[in-house]
Structure formats: C-alpha cells, structure tokens
UniProtKB/TrEMBL annotation:
SUPFAM superfamilies: Periplasmic binding protein-like II. Its main location: membrane. This is D-methionine-binding lipoprotein MetQ. It comes from the Bacteria. It is a lipid-anchor. It comes from Corynebacterium jeddahense. It holds the Pfam family Lipoprotein_9. Residues 1-22 form the signal peptide. It is found in: Membrane. Coiled coil: none annotated. Belongs to the NlpA lipoprotein family. Keywords: Lipoprotein, Membrane, Palmitate, Signal.
Length: 297
C-alpha cells in the first residue's frame, strides 16, 4: 500500500529517535506512583509543559491529591518509546492519529484512557471573509502525514473537494482527490510555508502553531472542520497509557481534571480559542485507534 512506504520511513525515524530521547523531569522524584500520605505521584510525559494549561492542570491535580511529576520532551517521536519502555506512566501530547501511526510501525499496543481537546483546523484566505470566488483556486495544505489527510477533509467538509471512490476516508492524500469533481486544487507544501501562501494571497490550510507564529487571527478562517464530525475524530488529543493501566482510577481522575473548567479556560487562552474539549469514552477512543492502526498497516 502507498502508506507502507511512508510508515517504513517513519519507523526508521522512530527507531533512531529512541536513542536520542531528551527529556527532563520537573521534580527530583525518581520514583513513580508512590504515595505520600494521601497523595500519589504520577510521572506524566508531554511536549507542552510550558503552556498555561499544564500549570493549571498540575495545580488542580495537586488539589485532588495527585502530584504530577511532569517529564518534558522536546520532540514528539521521543514520547511513545519512553512510555513503551516504562520511563513514564502516562502521556498527554498526541492525537489518536499519531498514536495509531506509532502502534502500527512499532508493533506496540499503547492504549487510550481518555480524551482531551481537539484543535480546530481552518482554511485561511487573506482579505476574504467567505468562500465566495474560491472556485478554481489552488489551496496550500501541509504535506506532513499528521495534517495532510485532515486538511483535505477540511476541504471535503467545505464542499470544495471530492474524493475518488474507494479513497481512505480518514487519511486521504492528494492522489485520492477527484480533480474533475472538485472546485479547487490542492498543493501540498511544508507546514511552515502555509502562512507564506496565505500572505501571497492564496488560500491555505494553516495549523495552530503556524497561525500563532505568523500572527494570523484564528477567527479569520473562511472554513474549518467540525470537531464533532467523524472526519475529525483521529485528531482528538488523548491521554495514553499501557494496556495494563487502562482501568487505573488515578489516571482516569487526571482525565476528569483536564476536562475541568479551570483547565479548559487556560487551554482556550493558550490556543486563542481554537481548542474544543471532547468527551468520549475510552471504548470509543480505542475503537477509533484500532481502526486507524489497521488502515496504516
């Protein structure tokens, strides 16, 4: 399958990255899940520890008798291997889609214990407030595997693209677009170049990180995906654990704390209002995960 070539390369990158794990803990504690009176310590990994939401999350967890030993990772590919090797107990950094790619390429079976937020992905077109006049335009989309399929589906939801019969529903590529039935063309570029396309006057799908760096108002999008749509499900951010910990009540409590009003408010501030909390059962989340793993194999 066409995905296997990408996945083979991704697997090699993951293997290489495991020898280069660069992480640090916010505490001196080297012991994991040890109680201190009525408190328990949980070693949790993330790439987002500097965000306000994580500071509020740690404070709220402490109020509930859970001390977070936050392990900071500098790159995404470092986290799942560290979890598989038992260096951390739980993580919160990735989407279901990213976890599915890891499971499929590594042969591991990390599981999802709860959901967090989904960051809405938008279509931006400088000096335009609607899709009027977009027919025939070339739309720049990110070319990385984590965002490309989702960007195409944003355009599908907006009625601008049609996919060929038999195309993968959740992970389409530009080759899956039915050009004759579509209103726009897509040009896949590095995600860092999507703001440049926007500034040149071309419509572009731009993810939140690059929106913030380019100073583009997230509210100015002319279209966006629906966080409640089936097509958006792979992009729900999740809490990941080993299979043995899928029913751990302390970790389930952390999911509840992340969904609290205090953390949600901080999350909205961090994301400029583009983050939407999603509450889905772990059964539903793991079903989405397993379906994606099969698609990536």
């Amino acid at each position: 399958m066409r995905t296997k070539r990408f996945l083979a390369a991704a697997a090699a990158a993951l293997i290489a990255s495991t020898g280069l794990v660069a992480c640090s803990s916010e505490t001196e504690s080297s012991s994991s899940s040890k109680g201190d009176g009525d408190n328990v310590t949980v070693k949790i990994g993330t790439t987002d520890a500097d965000l306000k939401a994580w500071s509020v999350f740690a404070d709220e967890a402490e109020k509930n008798g859970i001390h977070l030993d936050i392990v900071r990772f500098s790159e995404y590919p470092q986290v799942n291997p560290a979890q598989s090797e038992g260096q951390i107990e739980i993580s919160k950094f990735q989407t279901i889609n990213y976890q599915a790619q890891y499971n499929a390429t590594s042969g591991k079976d990390l599981r999802i214990i709860g959901s967090g937020e989904i960051n809405v992905l938008g279509l931006f077109w400088k000096d335009h407030t609607s899709l009027d006049g977009i027919d025939g335009q070339e739309v720049a989309i990110p070319n990385d595997p984590s965002n490309q399929g989702r960007a195409i589906n944003v355009l599908v939801q907006a009625g601008l693209l049609k996919l060929r019969d038999g195309a993968p529903k959740l992970t389409p590529t530009p080759a899956d677009v039915d050009k004759n039935a579509s209103k726009v063309k897509v040009v896949a570029v590095d995600a860092s170049q999507t703001p440049n396309a926007y500034n040149e006057g071309r419509p572009a799908i731009i993810n939140n990180n690059w929106l913030q760096r380019a100073g583009i108002d997230p509210a100015s999008s002319v279209a966006a995906d629906d966080p409640n749509s089936e097509l958006a499900e792979p992009y729900i951010n999740v809490f990941t654990v080993s299979g043995d910990d899928l029913d751990n009540p302390t970790y389930e409590k952390l999911v509840d704390i992340w969904q609290s009003p205090e953390v949600t408010e901080a999350l909205n501030e961090d994301s400029n209002g583009t983050a939407v909390q999603v509450q889905r059962s772990k059964e539903d989340l793991n079903k989405i995960l397993d379906n994606l793993v099969e698609e990536y194999k």
